[in-house]
Design goal:
α4 (57-67) runs antiparallel to α5 (76-84). The longest helix is centred in the middle third of the chain and has 18 residues, at 138-155. The protein is 50% helix and 12% strand. With 278 residues, it is α/β, with parallel strands linked by helices. It folds into two domains: 12-84, Orthogonal Bundle (434 Repressor (Amino-terminal Domain)), CATH 1.10.260.40; 92-275, Endonuclease, Chain A, CATH 3.30.870. Strands 3-2-1-4-5-6 form a six-stranded mixed beta sheet, with helices on both faces.
């Protein structure tokens, strides 16, 4: 049997794989045994162990469950975050962990469609722009798009969270990618609005000074009804768990929804933009 020797010092990805193999063998498990517990094929596990495949957030969480590491300080999920550090904004993976279990998600976005509602082609076009100006590598761009798909899948769980999204009008006006990419993205927004757990509004330009936010913001209501806010600077993401500072943001979000177009009017505007009639 050919056994590839692992070098955990080669990279965070290699360290993850070496640790996975070591933990598996310490339990006396074959790859087939771990496969049954994690619901991943033995080939997938082999590829992660030998560094041929990058572990996903879901894979790392499944590994933590298999080895009983939930709540521990040194989890596979934490190791996954180290792998993603080069391609994802610092603080963002931690936020996504909370987003994946939130009861309610309230998001406001400026300039671009928020990630939860992006089509793969729209997301790829955004990342291609980052690659073109040298901000990230093509490999990191691919990782970001793949991660977005996993993030969207987590939020599509059963039962799903309530998702409130307010788009600044600039989100639907700014072209990203080809016209066909934008057409598909607008159709995705309209389909989202039809979901029973979704509220979609557009804060049109006429809202003017009544707009309470100048930058994107997300407020999560967690299963225990606690609140968490997330915002980004140019260099990192910021989580705020302090009730005294998050509650005013939630109040401001309600004011934003009050002044934004109602959902029917928002969908009509998006459809007009999609058809090129507005």
């Amino acid at each position: 049997m050919n056994r590839k020797e692992l070098n955990p010092d080669a990279s965070p990805q290699a360290a993850f794989g070496a640790r996975l193999r070591s933990a598996r063998e310490a339990h006396g498990w074959k790859q087939e045994d771990l496969s049954a517990m994690m619901k991943y094929s033995s080939g997938h596990i082999s590829a992660v162990e030998t560094g041929r495949k990058i572990p996903s957030w879901r894979f790392s969480r499944s590994a933590d469950a298999a080895f009983g590491l939930q709540g521990a300080a040194d989890t596979f999920e934490r190791a996954w975050r180290e792998i993603q550090h080069g391609s994802l904004l610092e603080g963002f993976p931690e936020y996504v962990g909370h987003e994946g279990r939130a009861a309610e998600i309230r998001a406001y976005e400026v300039g671009v469609i928020p990630g939860l509602l992006q089509t793969p082609d729209y997301a790829a076009a955004i990342e291609a722009g980052h690659v073109e100006r040298g901000a990230i590598t093509p490999e990191q761009a691919q990782e970001r798009v793949s991660f977005l798909g996993e993030r969207q899948a987590m939020v599509a769980r059963k039962p799903p969270p309530l998702v409130h999204v307010v788009l600044d009008e600039s989100c639907i006006r700014r072209p990203v990618g080809s016209p066909s990419v934008m057409q598909a993205q607008m159709a995705r927004l309209i389909a989202f609005a039809e979901q029973p757990n979704a509220v979609l509004q557009v804060a049109d330009f006429s809202i003017g000074a009544r707009r309470p936010f100048s930058l994107p913001i997300t407020v999560l209501t967690l299963p225990d009804r606690s609140l968490l806010a997330y915002a980004e600077s140019a260099t990192r993401g910021h989580l705020d768990r302090e009730t005294n500072s998050v509650l005013p943001l939630l109040t401001a979000y309600h004011h934003l929804q009050k002044h934004a177009l109602p959902q029917a009017g928002s969908v009509a505007m998006i459809d007009q933009v999609r058809k090129g009639t507005l």
